[in-house]
Structures are given as C-alpha cells and as structure tokens.
C-alpha cells in the first residue's frame, strides 16, 4: 500500500472532504481562534520578564539613543549559535513602531500563535486526508488537535514570554516547511515532478533556513520530514520511493548528521568543556532529561494549573539511575512509549507520527547540549505531535468500539459534549494563567507558593519586597535560599545578604562577609556572577561601612582565582572585570589595570574590556601597549558594533596625535559599556 493515494483512489468520503475544504470546519477554526484571543487578552499588558531585559530592553534602549544601528540590533544578538536574526528583526519592527510598550510585543506573539494554530490545522487536515483510517475525519481530527494545542495552558509561558517569540517563529516556519514537504510528496506521487522538486528543494529549504535563523531548533525540519515519510509515504513494488526523495534526505538529513557527528567526534572536548559553567555533567543531564520529558508529558495530558510557568529551576538533577528512583522509571517509560509508536507504525500511522514528532522535536534541547534541565517552552512544537497521537489513539478506539454499543448515537453525543467540556476547561485554565502573567508581582508570589525552592521565584519575590522597603522579609527570603539544596541558590543568598545590609543599612556585618567568602573555591555560575555584578555596580557610587570597594574587589579576585573552571568562561572574566572597575573607582589604577589585562587575556571578553585596557595604557604613558591592545580589539569587534567602533576610533585618533574628545570621557564610556 502506498502512503499517498491518487485522487481517484481516495474514498468517496475523503474526496467530498477535500472538496468542501472551505465550509464548516473553517467556521469552527475561526471560532477557535477568537476564543484563543479572548483567553490570552488579560496577559497582553504584562511586563518584560527574565531574559527580556538583556535580549530586548537593553539593545532597544541603545538603538533609541543612537548607540547602535538597526543592523547590530538584528545581527548582534548572542542567543544561540546563529544569533537568531529573523526573530530579532521582528523585535526591531515592534520597537521601531511602538518603542518599549509591552502590549505590541505580546500581541505580536499572540498573532504568531494564531498563525501557528492555523498551520497545524492546514498540515494535519491535508496529511490525515490520505490516512486510510482517518480520511473521512481528517478535518475534525485536525481541528481537535489544533484546539488542544492553541488552548493548552502550557503554551502561556511561550506566548506571553516575549523573548520566546524565537521558539514561536521557529515553529511557524517549521510548520510551513512540513506543509511544503507534504505537498511536494503529493506532487511527486501525482507525477508532477517540477512542482514537487520546487517544493522539496526550494520552498522547504527556504522555510527551514527561516526556522533555523529564528531559533536553532529549525534545523530539525529534515528529521521531522523523515518521520512523515515513514508514517505516510511508504514505498512498495508498485510505487517505489522517488529518487528525488532519496536525494532530499541524503542532502538535507544524512550529510548534516554525518558532519555534526564527525565534528564532535574529532573535538569531543568542545561538548564536554561546555559543561564547565553548569552544576551537572553531561552524564547527569542525559539521566535527568528523561524525567523532564515524562514530566512534560504529564503536564500536557493533565495540566497542573499554577504549577506551570517559568519557575522550574527547582527541577532536581539525576545523579544515577536510582538517584532519584524516578530516573529509571522515566527511562523505561520513554522506551515503552517509543516502542509502542514503532509497533503501531503500520496499524495506526498517526499515533506513530505523533509520538515520533514529539520525541524528535525535543532532540536539540533535551539531550547533550548544556542547557538548563527544564523549560516549558521546549514543548511548543513537540506538543503538536503528542496531541496528534492522543487524538488519533482515542479516535481509533472510538471507531472500533462504537459499532458494538447499543446506542451509538447517544455515545457520539456524549463524546461531543465531553470534547466541548475539555476545551472549556483548557480555556479557563489558560485564562487563569494569562491573568497571572499580567503582573510580575502576582507571578512571583504564585511562583514562591508553588515552587518554594525555585531560586528565580525567591529572587523575584525578594526584589518586590526590597522595593517596598520590607527588608526583614527580604532577609527571610535569603535565609530560606541559603538552606536550599542548590549551591547556586545558597551562594546568591549569601551575596545578596551582604548587598541588602549595605543598601538598606549602610553597613555590613563581619559574619555576613565570612559567609559570603564560602563562595571561594566553588564553581562560578551566571547566577553568582550577576549577584556579584549588581552589588559591584552599587559600590561604584556608594560607600558601605565594613566593606570597602577594595575589600570587595579582593573577594571577587579570590573567587575567580579559586574557581575550578577555565578563565575563558564568561562568569570568570566578567567578575574579574568588575573587580578591576572597583579598583579603578577606588583610585588603585595599577591593580585595576592588572585585573583588566587578566580579564582580556583569555580572548573571550567583550571588546569594551580591551578598549578600557588600551585607554589605561594610554593614560599610563604607554602608547605602544595601548596600540597593541587596540589592534587586538579591532580584530574581535563586529563591523556593526557602532558604539565600540566609535570609542576605538576616538582612542586611535589620540594615539595618532589628532585632537578629539577628552581622554577621561572615552575611558568612562569604555569602562561601563561591558
């Protein structure tokens, strides 16, 4: 049996289904889209959160003040391997038209969500039309899957988290690519070679590039196409698989996989060393991710309301198969799930395709790369596959059982009412979640209640309390954090305790300093680095009894020197640079210059560090060293970094003896630009 049946071979009901493509199902789809808009409305006025400020607010402000151009905004982001310029271009469009108002950003995210929902319907209604078991129900099943996906409360943390537009756009273009693949294969089956080749070798690669330049997950498109091929486009002696299809998978799937595996096979340290900034190893991540995947599955099939969200950094690390014991059960569960999909490939291809799509779409973020262990937005695309599998399995069971019941009409009405009730429950849950996202304070308070050991939730709550002047309650949060079985949370609590004493009371106790020094010798992660940096920025302009600028800078140097990590890691060179700035603010120029040079030496620091070092050499009467550092900075700088290019040009003019702005002004700008 071939996977795609010719039009003349389609069941009569399927032919009617395809002919009536713009009738009632589309009306229901429009109603579904309107309902989705209604349940998300309360959250559209919510604030920027978490990764939004560094990725969006800061570059938008720099662009608005003329410090960077639009090209650096779009192409200068360092998220992911490719910088995700297509996503950044849409953020720039929002900023250029409405500034920093959050409503337009979140509204754009919602529009993308609706567009993705329409593509889910379009893809599945066409794909399932050629499924022998579901041809007559293709649109109904596609509509149910689209409704589950659009209305599910887990999607809130993607749609209303502005920066996760990256995941949304990647999903949007991935769905376009899969739709192009299905149409291309249909054209090849109908011997319309030219149309099929254009879709497979032009339209699909373009959509894949757009998906990948939105977020790197888009590179998985060929693998997802292979799943659709195995599910629905089966070769036979009467209709062998076209040569163009073989060429497509060799070129776009096999060759890239071989290249990636060869690269990491020849450079395994590149992967292993990338875990230097994490508290878990590669092996521990591989053990932990099955638990994360099974937890995602549970949350998708049985939504957990307020437990959903972004405060999931309390997810435990698996240190062994039985530590915790759920690790082994999760692995067994995933193996059983994958085995069931393989077993059902011929009998129920929609179930196979759904489960395989769910697992394959998780490969990039849930396997070997040193990302955080758990994030809900990783299910934005994969959940389409899970809902397809669940609905297909339910529809298959109903089809088999219904003829054997005494009152099939009554059962059908009951199933219809149950489906409507399910959508109502999902809508209400999403409405509640969206309402919680309308306020950072409400979100943080709920996060602390539902995830009492989440460092993110506790820190957000502490910020709220501190802004209200409730310092004793803030300290209670830090005391709780210090007792959590999480080294990063404990370290941040000790650092922030010192910062709170200084900011609230103007003095630091000796006991708090002793506790903070316990960070010396531990791995320095991003969380500790940011805590040190925030306090360093405060000390630049303020004095604190019991802790001078020099004393805190010395502690920072001790932390960096004792950290069991390479100096190339961002937390290390950046913390050393903060120490240098404190030395300079205290008038200790020699120590400031030494630490700036050591921060610059590993070759991974921001260009601003090199510019400051070159300025310090120049001010110290060493123009030769200043020129060497400046030349090095020129090699590292991007051609779109207008702000730092301007600073380099000013200093170069001074080195060349050409009058320009004062040296002091250039030095200050370079000092703070990192």
What do these coordinates show?
By secondary structure, the chain is mainly α. The chain has 3 domains: 7-268 and 293-433, no CATH class; 452-604; 606-674, no CATH class. The protein is built from 31 helices and no strands. The chain has helices at 12-19, 24-40, 52-64, 70-75, 85-98, 102-127, 138-151, 156-159, 165-189, 193-214, 221-232, 243-266, 268-273, 282-301, 326-343, 349-360, 382-401, 408-436, 440-450, 455-467, 471-482, 487-505, 510-516, 526-541, 549-562, 570-585, 589-600, 607-619, 623-636, 642-655, 663-672. Helix 24 (526-541) runs parallel beside helix 26 (570-585) and helix 26 (570-585) packs antiparallel against helix 27. The longest helix is centred in the middle third of the chain and has 29 residues, at 408-436. The chain is globular. Mean pLDDT is 90; it is low at 1-23 and 660-674.
According to DSSP, the number of beta strands is 0
Number of helix segments?
31
Count of domain modules: 3
Strand content: under 5%
Radius of gyration: 28 Å
**Helix and strand composition category:** mainly alpha
* Distance separating the two termini: 62 Å
Largest sheet entry: none
pLDDT < 50 runs, ≥5 residues: 1-23, 660-674
Helicity range = 55-70%
The dominant shape is globular
- Overall mean confidence score, pLDDT: 90
